[in-house]
Specification:
CRISPR-associated protein Cas6, Alpha-Beta Plaits, five-stranded antiparallel beta sheet, Cas_Cas6_C, 5 helices, 276 residues, alpha+beta, four-stranded antiparallel beta sheet, 34% strand, RNA binding, 16 strands, RNA-binding
Length: 276
């Protein structure tokens, strides 16, 4: 499930943000959550083996016109602004929607914004093949170590076999982490009619292979999470084809694809459901 959140500034005719504004959006989301849920996501999160997942994703900011550049580091947005917040965990979306509709402000950098509307959507899939369009770039990487022990990231490209292997393996891990959640989820998980027991895994149709590849032209995008970051994150925008069990396809729509979802990477929307 997802929210389309619409924002307007309390004053002024434009919104000025650094190009690396993702950390402002992430902070705004955490600020709307209940203390218990925020602490859980900040802390252990949804665990699978040694991996921890936040299981929410958000898009880049949208505005009526493309933002204007002011130098190399600043963007000027014409209001209203909007972004998508998506999660398979309805508690996250409910907390955010309640906070926004109660009139709480969102602080993005030096901009004080208020919510002018929230739209709720529940895109669902019943098939095994989806064409997905990115709402924020999909990133995929491995962390290696130099000879001196310092870590560094190796980013993969869609034409590399490792790209699809890591995307699909990451999606399976998210599924396992969600189904094994110890956090007391009080609302149904998106795509389910009833609240499942956290200890009851949902079986996957293992006869359906999980595949991921570009479905047309894609292009590379680089960016930073925060202006203070010295390293670039590399991702890919465009249209992709995802094939596999319906449960995993639904999770991709709700939780995002690839790494750094809770930092604003890997948000996707349904372009079309593809018949076999």
């Amino acid at each position: 499930m997802r929210l389309s959140i619409h924002l307007i500034p309390r004053s002024g005719l434009e919104v000025r943000l650094p190009r690396a504004y993702h950390h402002f959006l992430q902070s705004a989301v955490y600020g709307l959550l209940s203390e218990e849920l925020a602490d859980f996501l900040h802390g252990p999160g949804f665990l699978y083996e040694k991996r921890s997942f936040r299981l929410f994703v958000f898009s880049t900011l949208r505005s009526p016109r493309p933002p204007r550049s002011m130098g190399k580091d600043i963007l000027l947005f014409d209001p209203p602004l909007s972004f998508i917040l998506s999660s398979p965990v309805l508690d996250i979306l409910e907390d955010c929607a309640q906070g926004l509709l109660a009139g709480r402000s969102l602080r993005l950098g030096n901009n004080d914004l208020v919510c002018s509307g929230v739209e709720v959507a529940a895109p669902k899939t019943t098939g095994t093949r989806l064409r997905l369009h990115t709402c924020s770039p999909i990133t995929c990487y491995s962390t290696l170590k130099k000879q001196d022990g310092q870590p560094y990231a190796v980013y993969y490209e869609p034409q590399e076999t490792t790209f699809a292997e890591q995307i699909t393996a990451n999606l399976r891990k998210k599924h396992a982490a969600l189904r094994g959640a110890s956090f007391p989820l009080t609302l149904p998980l998106s795509g389910e009619e009833e609240t499942p027991s956290p200890q009851t895994p949902f079986p996957l149709d293992v006869s359906v292979p999980l595949r991921f590849r570009p479905a047309g032209k894609v292009h590379r995008v680089t960016g930073r999470f925060s202006p203070r970051d010295t390293f670039l994150i590399k991702g890919w925008e465009g249209t992709f084809l995802l094939e596999g069990p319906t449960e995993l396809l639904q999770l991709a729509l709700d939780a995002g694809l690839g790494a750094k979802n809770s930092s604003g990477w890997g948000c996707v929307e349904l372009a079309e459901e593809v018949n076999a």
